[in-house]
Amino acid sequence: MNALRLIPLRPAALVLAVATLSLILLCSLALGATDIPFGRVLELLRRPDDSTDSLVVQTLRLPRTLVAALAGAGLGVSGLLLQGVTRNPLADPGILGVEAGGALAILLMVVFFPASPAVLFVPAAFVGGVLAALLAYSAARSVGVTPLRLALAGVAVAYLVSAVSRSIQLLFEDRAQGALFALSGSVAGRNWDQLFQVAPWMLLGLLLALLLTPRVNVLALGDDVSRGLGLHTGRDSAAITGLGVLLAAASVSVVGPVGFVGLIVPHAARALAGPDHRFSLPLAALLGAAFLTAADIAARLIDRPAETPVGLLVAAAGAPFFVLLARRIGRK
């Protein structure tokens, strides 16, 4: 009966998510230190001119909005993949230390290899994220892996890695200036160059994730069922986990660590579309894009013309959600 009720909800949820994202994107282009009427924004998107409003929309807000949407989609899908493969409802690229590891890797590149091209930021963040996730898993495995223990180990690793990043930032203050965006958890000031830097990785990762949803469905059923259905469990789990880390790394390379997006969004997507990843994954991408873009709008408006780091707003919403979810799992 539940499955039957979900069938009409899936297309409705996707249509509603597309409409909501479209409205939020328009609001992101219109609202900020100075507001621009919605009709004027639509006109400037069709026919840019030499006005100040056109400069604000085309040069400042449009790339920033697209970066926020792509990063939110990547983090939402990353969390969904990690939760599906590990069967851990607390899995999240921020909680598992992936985002902190990626940010540290970018910081090390900027400080010690300043001549490195920006195109290497995503691969570097991927390596840093993988190493941080392996460290968290090793720590949890030493006392027995459970969803809650893995999450706690990931939080500890994230704080440890963040402390290392802060130490390097203090010791090499002048050199570290170029990596502040990788540590800020913000989309302020993002430009077209940074968008084009991350877009190929992100779009490729999202496409591969969509193609791999049938395998994620099988892996979510457990190792025994997966083997019985002919999957190479270890290989497929590693590939999908790596894809989740790649999406998180691409997001970190352009907006910095923004925790809890990959925790909240997958639960919302599954609540609306059910456990089938063929439907919940595209919904998670849409919801993640809408969530992070909406948070960025709020970050601009709370104390305008000053801006609040978007990571602080997301953490304010995500931390209570994490505590409630952890308590619920701890009672089981």
TrEMBL record:
Signal peptide: none annotated. InterPro entries: ABC_BtuC-like, ABC_transptr_permease_BtuC. It comes from the Bacteria. GO terms for molecular function: transmembrane transporter activity. CDD domains: TM_ABC_iron-siderophores_like. GO terms for biological process: siderophore-iron import into cell. Its main location: membrane. The chain crosses the membrane at residues 62-82, 94-113, 119-138, 150-172, 201-222, 243-267, 279-298, 310-329. The keyword Transport applies. Keywords: Cell membrane, Membrane, Plasmid, Transmembrane, Transmembrane helix, Transport. GO terms for cellular component: plasma membrane. It is found in: Cell membrane. The keyword Electron transport does not apply. This is Putative Fe3+-siderophore ABC transporter, permease component. It comes from Deinococcus deserti (strain DSM 17065 / CIP 109153 / LMG 22923 / VCD115).
